[in-house]
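Example record

The entry below shows one chain as it appears in the dataset: sequence first, then structure tokens.
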Amino acid sequence: MHKSYWREANDRLDPEADYVQIYRTIALHEFPWDFNQSLSFALFRTYAVPSIGRLLDETGQFTGECQKRYDDTGLLLEAPLTHGFDSVEGRAATRRINQMHAMYDISNDDLRYVLSTFVVVPKRWIDDYGWRPLTRVEVDASVAYYRQLGMRMNIKDMPTTYAGFADLMDDYERGHFAFDAGARRVADSTLALLCSFYPRPAKGVVDLFSRALMDEPLLAAFAYDVPAPSVRRASAAALRARARLLRRLPPRKKPRMAIDTPRIRSYSVLPDLASLGTFPASAGAGCPVPDASVASR
């Protein structure tokens, strides 16, 4: 397999029909670490919208069981990616997501915003730090993939293009990012979890590195200190050095699944998808992806 194997395979496919296959390739073969990081940052951004961050704080799940919420979210979102939306696993995962979200009255505007971060943040991350850019076919497939997820979650009035999702995300953040004490607690807990994935002596460095990758509106919304410009430059340089190294490595043959990573700590084997997440019987239970099952598209 030559280095361009997966890119060339994707470019032979139709992003409107083969979006699951294309997105699976870029997420699990070409950019598994980058997608994990960027989607974590995508969810992190949503906390800066007070209606989202405050709700997550009120559930207590992200300050009390942050690791399990992280694990359950990753496994549920990966099921339709791995098996397809119409598979038994894909249907079970989206059903479980909708059951959790239906416990709360969340606006369609918040739903669309969260979905937009899934589309936009990974592409922007790869534009800045990836070992190669995404192709037009791959970007279009990403849009089609998340539009399909949104339809199955009954999210209304979704954009139809990447540019539309990017405008939606940027406009929503300009109009809604603001400080909220509860959202700050959720952000602190999530950042502490991300730091825990690395050796304890590196905690302070990882915290600073993570904040160095955040833009100033996001830092301001959480009242985080802005890292020095030299720290920002060093952090970006480290990620770009990693990208240069990856360009020299052979393509990944085996997909990088979430359950196989050391970041998933709640389970040693893939659990029953129907058992994941939170349930109404749990007092104050919440969901780490702030969406809901609402009226038809």
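Notes for this example: Residues 282-297 have pLDDT under 50 and may be disordered. Residues 5-251+258-265 form one domain.
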